[in-house]
Design brief:
homotrimer, alpha+beta, Nuclear Transport Factor 2, Chain: A, 6 strands, 33% strand, elongated, coiled coil (chains A, B, C), SnoaL-like (chains A, B, C), Nuclear transport factor 2 family protein (chains A, B, C), NTF2-like_dom_sf (chains A, B, C)
Chain lengths: 218, 218, 218
């Protein structure tokens, strides 16, 4: 082979390597993103457990939104912060655990956005007053701003709240639909009731094997 | 250095880069696989919660198998679908939550197969009839067909079922061992009883530090 | 372009590819590490469930430490093993489930070390004697020795223990602070009480969005 042929062959190989590399960089980024988004949502949970509301609100993008339990949509980090600070202070005799579980995360690396389905398993109590079990499904969105993943949308569908002493079979606690003096910026996007009513929180993704849409309607 | 020497040196470097690249591609694939398998099993859980049996069955490979609670082995997607559709319809007054938790996933990228140990924490209820807590360990297998991960084997070992009102200390609910008119294709691969009996569901992997096999026998 | 110019250009490209490659190798390693550490801690949980104490102790580094529930620090794998073997044998009538949930993992690939915040949701029972719910937050450390991730530090802060029959609202079970004949090697690093007292287990990481330190003090 002439030197020129060798050079041309090498150029082709280097070109192919560069393409593979940029493909790989995207895939490696997806792993980084997966870890970052997982850590983000789980950290949200740890903050909520302990009433660290300002830290929790800081996890939202500037124009991030929050919608929980059919109480309407709160728009922007300031309103999210206001909503959160409406909850009781964490102190002796307050239990407010919100375990963040079972993530299904779908990342769009090109656009720097992602969606995640999670569930939270809830244990709440006020000493000598009441104790409850609860569960909610989240369908959340995330956005990468300045290289840092943030919550773009947190949407929690509470599926049951039950008194600890009564259990689930005797019905559930009705959802609180509004907080006095804390009007939402927009009405709820879904109309539903928690247990014992039936409701399938919508999925952000199709069946991962068949690709068929499943909108979660009963 | 002569141009020829430079060329030869470059060729060697490109060759080394190509090898590293193909090594890296395998590793990047493992991350993609990890995310896909995690999403797959967790999606199975969300479908089971809500009685979306056809969607759940679609997650199985054509020749996938299902074995739960010592009820025998159901072979092939059709029989899995039949088994699932035997359960009550999701509707008002039916709670059937199966949280998918604590995955230990082992991927064989070369063969496009994987194994996963999971546990499910279960809350079930029929309004005004009964409520239960339950837990099961899964030892599952996955297979990549046409670029999509599917469930090759789902094996759930139920470790306890307890009436909500009685708690665990007063014993458990006996496992249902068969469903009328729904004979399995093969007998159970393990003989065990749930709580209060002792049973260690077998592990698909050795101790990750010592490498010693631990077959989970008491 | 002369052959020499082509060669020089190629050399520059290959150099750039090599740099990107070594950057990518680090990132791909982080994904491998994430999976390995996740599998490690979850396997610890499965072993604890079933009283597989020697297998659990084997997951610790030679100089690994264990500190749980304010009982002091046990230093080195041998003392960890001794601490663990102090617990009741797994057998009929013993339930000791410790689900490993909600990991926030921070990896330092350069140093081969990592930290992880987890929580465990606990169901324990002795048949005909007692049943309890419990929850703990872990702040753990991991170290890669001979290419294998091990537990360098396991620190569990129990946040509540409640009798199943009483629930949370009526207060909690006091933490057991020491085991007879099993003196720790060093006193507890934190002084705290479980529910109904308030305590925020310290975080190993700052707020992931603002970067502000949050030491978890109430």
């Amino acid at each position: 082979m002439s030197q020129e042929d060798m050079l041309v062959a090498l150029q082709r190989e280097v070109e192919s390597l560069k393409n593979k590399m940029s493909e790989l960089e995207k895939r490696a980024g997806a792993a980084d993103d997966y870890i970052a988004i997982s850590n983000l949502q789980r950290t949200y949970g740890y903050y909520v457990d302990k009433g660290q509301w300002d830290d929790a609100a800081d996890l939202f993008a500037e124009n991030g939104t929050l919608e929980i339990a059919g109480r309407g949509v709160y728009k922007g980090q300031d309103r999210v912060r206001q909503y959160m600070n409406n909850f009781p202070k964490y102190e002796r005799g307050v239990l407010f655990n919100h375990m963040q579980l079972q993530p299904v995360i779908t990342i769009n690396a090109e656009s720097g956005t992602a969606k995640g389905r999670w569930r939270t398993f809830i244990q709440i109590a006020t000493l000598d007053v009441e104790a409850r079990w609860g569960e909610a499904t989240y369908e959340n969105e995330y956005v990468k701003v300045d290289g840092i993943w943030r919550i773009a949308k947190l949407h929690g569908f509470i599926t049951f709240y039950s008194e600890y002493d009564r259990g689930w079979d005797k019905g559930g606690v009705k959802l609180v639909r509004s907080f006095k003096g804390l009007e939402p910026d927009a009405p709820s996007t879904y109309n539903y009731e928690a247990w014992p009513e039936a409701f399938i929180p919508p999925y952000h993704y199709p069946n991962p094997v068949t690709g068929r849409r499943n909108n979660g309607s009963v």
